[in-house]
Amino acid sequence: MLAPSRRMPPPYARPVRPRHTPSRPGAAMTATAPPEPPRADCAFTLAACRNQPYVPRHLGLTRLPSRRLRAAARAALSFPEPESWLDVGTGYARFPEVAKELFPYTAFDGLDPTYRVLHARVAERVEEAHVGNLTDARITARLRARYDIVSMFRHLEHTRDPREELRAALTVLRPGGLLLLELPDPRCVFAVLLGRWWTPHSRPGHLHLIPLDTLRQELESQGCTVLATDRSSPHIPYDLAATTSRALAFFLPSLLSRACAPLVAVAWALDHILAPVLRHTRFSNTYRVIARKETP
Question: Phi and psi for 49 in degrees, rounded to 5?
């Protein structure tokens, strides 16, 4: 790992461009998709893994509500208003849909390896939809230096090469643009106490668990300045519920584990009761980083 850069960050700057207007009903669709659909036998999907012990059977309890997505978007309010924003790993673009409430004049685009992002474009949650990976040279060539903000929420840990993913994100950012990242914290107390039962330790979905200090060093080695970190507000109260669900799925037959769903609901309630306290301790399971791409 290269030593962190000691350059003084220049003030936030970007080229002056005409302001985007909010999406309008009936606007033309812009989408990028690979020429052939992805092979079903190599795609990691919840449906394909439903019967595997590492996938919680009650994931509906741990879905991020709109208020948490809104809190993630609110983290960018202290910076100049972006004209264009790319959400990587956007899925059905729930985050852009919520973030538009705070940034009504920002053009939101979405990128996802699945075709869900095309449904999001039809629903007008994003203005441009791109199917594929950010590290695909065809995508980075088309999107080079187009965005003021690139966001990745619980995405980087799923990529094959996080370093290349960050490099590609910086490629599509303008100088002075922001990276908004949220990742699970492998050094939180839940990760230590729950061990292999902690959900981010599951495979094949989670390939890399990156500590905050390691991510900070990597960003600085790629010419970024880390502007803010937060270990409190990004906390997701789901550890006890997800662990209980995975344990039931592993030790009990399918029908019997489903009959124990009330146990998962109790664990979920306990997660949320304790969350206001745990989020301010090292039990917090997620961290957020905002970094700026410096002008070469």
Answer: -110, 10
Q: What is the mean pLDDT of the chain?
A: 82
Q: What is the pTM of this model?
A: 0.79
- What pLDDT was estimated at residue 17? 38
Among the listed residues 11, 12, 14, the one whose alpha carbon sits nearest the alpha carbon of residue 145 = 14
Are 151 and 194 within 8 A, CB to CB? no
222: its two tokens: 């790629």
10 Å CB burial of residue 29 (0-12, 13-18, 19+) is: exposed
Predicted local distance difference test score (pLDDT) of residue 178: 98
Sign of CA dihedral 92, 71, 206, 112: positive
Mean pLDDT by 10 residues, the chain (296 residues): 40 37 44 48 36 42 71 94 96 95 96 94 95 95 97 92 96 97 96 92 81 96 96 94 87 74 90 95 96 90
Least Cα distance to 84 among 103, 97, 71 occurs for: 103
